[in-house]
Amino acid sequence: MNLYNLYGLKMTHQEIANYRLASQKIFKMTQQTPQEIVRHLGAMQAQDYAMAKWAIGSRCDASEKSIEEAINSGEIIRTHILRPTWHFVAAEDIRWMLALSAPQVKKFTASAAKKYGFDDKKLDQTNSSIEKLLAGNNHLTRDEIMQELDIKKTSSQDFLSAVIMMNAELDGLVCNGRMKGKQITYALLDERVLKSEMKLTTEEALAKLAKRYFESHGPATLLDFSWWSGFSIAIIKSVINLIESELDSIEINNQKYWFRLDVIDIDNFHESVHFLPAFDEILISYKTREASILLEHQPKAFTNNGIFKPVILENGKVIGTWKRTIKKDHMKVETQFFTVTDEAKKSIVFEEIKHFENYLETKVIIE
Q1: Which of 2, 140, 153, 277 has the highest CB neighbour number within 10 Å of its CB?
Q2: Which residues of 17-45 are buried (b: 16+ CB within 10 A; e: fewer)?
Q3: Residue 262, Cβ neighbours under 10 Å: how many?
Q4: Which residue, among 193, 152, 149, has the nearest Cα to 169 in the 3D structure?
Q5: How far apart are the two ends of the chain, measured CA to CA in Å?
Q6: Which residues touch 72 (CB under 8 Å, ≥6 apart)?
Q7: Residue 226 pLDDT > 80, yes or no?
Q8: What is the DSSP string of 308-360?
Q9: How open is the CA angle 88-209-260, to the nearest 5 degrees?
Q10: What is the tens place of the pLDDT at every residue in 288-305?
Q11: CA distances (Å), origin 59, targets 29, 69, 364
Q12: What is the pLDDT of residue 257?
């Protein structure tokens, strides 16, 4: 049992923020591979492809090129899972995680497809056509696939094409293929990832997902896990008992927070600054985010319709945002702090950008 439970101490929001830095592999540089980082976190939101790669890179000593190689080789899979959005998932986790979450996400795709006259039968027929197109490691872009399916590229039909490909992903037929220049392609999942003999019941898979989440994102509540996983609180409550003995917990304001048993000692924390990408797990993976960002600053970091900006963290707290612009021979980074920041503090903050510079393998200039 941890010291908080043993002596009846209370955990503060600052301590929660510190623990999350450690559990999410942000606090200290790790020698883990990109695939190991993704596996540790379970699934990493990845609709912004460039930023999602930096989400991995900010947690390990890997360049953007090496992370892209892991994605192109199929060690890391980018697909729709958990919720109706893109995620990175380790290849070894894709099948059990897909089997668990696909039925709930398919409710969204089925509803959207029906608006275009695509029922289950027509979606299955379309899947068969897609399978023939991609067979033999033939990696194609969405536009190339739609052209072969004779689905015109219009604003309304573009949404239909997204639904068709998402349905094929959720059925375990396709996943991301190798990048074609800057274009994302699709490939057959069976040609990218070996089939697994492991069969889990829904209860076993949900318990495994929950344990993975709380160990990699904790301290976090059941409501946080519900938001991240897409499963209802009622379903989650029925499963948490299965892993209760494998986790630690503490109550704050009548809310129970769960985290890994061997969480790092709070005394080991030191001053730290981190430049994190848009849609990073440090914010997006929690339903409530007061531990990491003050309420009055939240509209500056993310919008009500779910757009998350790249953020600057100081000791686990969001203190500003940043954006990057690609130039011919360097990367320009512009920062915006929430409060007035003295130049001495700014220079310390800007020292952390060196990690981003190493990741990009190009010069970064801050303006």
Answers
A1: 277
A2: bbbbbbbbbbbeeeebbbbbbbbbbbbbb
A3: 9
A4: 193
A5: 47
A6: 178, 179
A7: yes
A8: B--EEEETTEEEEEEEEEE-SSEEEEEEEESS---HHHHHHHHHTHHHHHHHH
A9: 105
A10: 999 999 999 999 999 988
A11: 6, 17, 19
A12: 94
Answer yes or no: is pLDDT of 307 > 50: yes
Residues above pLDDT 90, as percent of the chain = 76
Report the SS3 class of residue 116. Answer: coil
- Work out the number of other CB atoms within 10 angstroms of the CB of residue 215: 21
Amino acid at 296: E
How far is the CA of 227 from the CAs of 110, 220, 233, 284, 356, in angstroms? Answer: 21, 11, 9, 9, 29
- Integer Cα distance of 53 and 63 in angstroms: 9
Residue-by-residue DSSP string for 24-59: TT-SS-B---HHHHHHHHS-EE-SSHHHHHHHHHTT
Q: Is the dihedral of CA 185, 190, 194, 196 positive or negative?
A: positive
**Hey, which residues does 175 pair with through a beta bridge?**
187
The token duo for 90 is 């380790």
DSSP bridge partners of 248: 259
Stretch among 69-73, 160-164, 363-367 having the lowest mean pLDDT: 363-367
CA dihedral 289, 292, 296, 297 (to 10 degrees): -110
CB atoms within 10 A of CB 357: 15
Comparing CA positions, the residue from 89, 75, 74, 91 lying closest to residue 177 is 74
What is the total residue count of the chain?
367
Across the beta sheet with 174-176, what order do the strands follow? 140-141, 185-188, 174-176
Tokens representing 340 are 């007035």
Single out the residue of 43, 21, 166 nearest to residue 97, CA to CA.
Answer: 43
Q: Cis omega (within 30 of 0) on the bond before 103?
A: no
Domains, the chain, ranges and CATH? 3-24+201-265 (1.10.10.10), 75-192 (1.10.10), 267-366 (no CATH)
Q: Which residues of 113-148 are buried (b: 16+ CB within 10 A; e: fewer)?
A: beeeebeeeebeebbeebeebbeeeebbbbebbbee
Which amino acid is it at 9?
A: L
